[in-house]
Amino acid sequence: MWSFNVSHFLPVLPRFQQGRPILAGLVVTLLSVGDAHASVARLEADLQAQWGRGEQLIEIGELREQEQRVIAEHIVIRQAQGDVVTIEAYHVQGDYDQPESVSIHGIRVIEPDVSDPVLTLTELALDRPATAVPDFANFTTPDAPLHGLRLQELSLWLDGTLAKQWTAEWGNDAALTGYLTLEALVLEEMSHAALGRFELHGLNAEFNDLASGFTASLALDEVIVRGLQGLDRPGQAQLERAELNGFSLTGDRWSVLLERAWASGNTYVGDVGFQGAALDIGQLIRLAPAQERQDLQVMNNVLTGGSGQMYAAGRSVSEWDDETQPPQLTSEGFLQLSEAGDVRYQMELPVTLPAHVTVEQAMQDPTLFETATLHGGSITLAYEDAGLLPRLASELAAQEGISTSQMVSHSWAQARQLEAVAGPQVAKLMVALVDIMGGHAQSLTTHIALPDPFTLEQFMMDPLGSSQRLRFTFQLK
To answer: What is the SS3 assignment for 85?
Structure first.
């Protein structure tokens, strides 16, 4: 009978132990090859399940594993209506069950009746997707934010069925043609409550409505948004920084331009502004529906004196200084309208926050400022007219069928009547504005001293009653 005696193998053990690293490496290699083949097979099955459903067919030219990547190449997706989507390569980086990234390269969409591709995309990449073949129709869910999305070199042509689908979604009968190109798009940490980063670079587009003859060209150098939080809390949104550069929308003899715009902070503390805004109101009136053109022409006459050219810039900066006692909220800003007027303001408000509320909490929840206590403080408003109020008087007079001087006289009488309702100080303010309407002055500076104590909540609940507690000083020039 055969018997097993372990002592027969004892002399061999030392030599076996010496070879263990080599044997272990061989085992790991064999296992990794097995995992690679399994990942390749899983990628093929997942692509088939995601893009080969129903009457939609998918063909995969090659599948392979290379340097921690599973790759599918030369993919062709044939849709039931005849559209064809081709993909040069599909890469899954890292662990197949928990990928570091998924990237799709060389995407083209071809419609049967259109000679050139209606869409091309050099690269679409997702960072840390939930699966190796995600559902691209649903990037985010409440439980799974979008960690990262990148688009590179997108070109879209409005031809064929794609243009018809867009037109149907817009709910009109326009026969759209044109194109859209985009250099890059980046999204990071996007959810229903926050957006970590959004960047758009190099957007250019042209739209033509063959039915109406309307043509427009759009250009946008860049949009950058960072650190947007509190989207799930109305009134409590907080923004680290947002900036827009180089916007233009132009058509046949009309244009809308914006050189730069920016924003940071929240409702009460931050920096918001724009510069280099230019609007051709006169030419835009031609594009409006006929029933709206008369009202727009009145607005054009008042704002620009009929020239149609409007240039604008503005900024508002607010800061919180907690090194003073009590802490102080300061703010200043301006709005310039080239043919209308210039408004500027300055504000200094000593503030005590509600009990147990920190500055950091107030920054996260701006509504806390509404219940804060103001210990006096001052606000200065300065208005310099460039023709806005006199032109408004003329337009109102024309509508009433009276002279401009009669309109100014009526306005003076109405302003004085406000004293019984809103108090003498508000009445004086309105009389001063009527003086500018009548051409008797060009600028008005108003200094407002606030009582101690005082709250914004009181003012919002009873603005007329609260205004009588304020002290006004006027300078009319």
So the answer is: strand
Average pLDDT, the chain: 85
Pair 303, 341: CB distance under 8 Å = no
* 147 half-sphere exposure, CB direction, 13 A CA radius: 13
pLDDT bin (cut points 50, 70, 90) of residue 15 is: very low
Query: How far is residue 284's CA from residue 281's CA, in Å, rounded to a whole number?
Result: 5
* DSSP element (H, E) containing 430: helix 424-437
pLDDT the model gives residue 140: 58
Extract the tokens encoding 315.
């900024």
Q: How far apart are CA 174 and CA 341, in angstroms?
A: 39
Residue type at position 241: R
| Band of pLDDT at residue 233, cut at 50, 70 and 90 | confident
Query: How far apart are alpha carbons 77 and 92 in whole angstroms?
Result: 19
Given phi > 0 = left and psi -120 to 50 = alpha, else beta, which region is 339?
alpha
Cα(281)–Cα(306) distance, integer angstroms: 9
pTM: 0.83
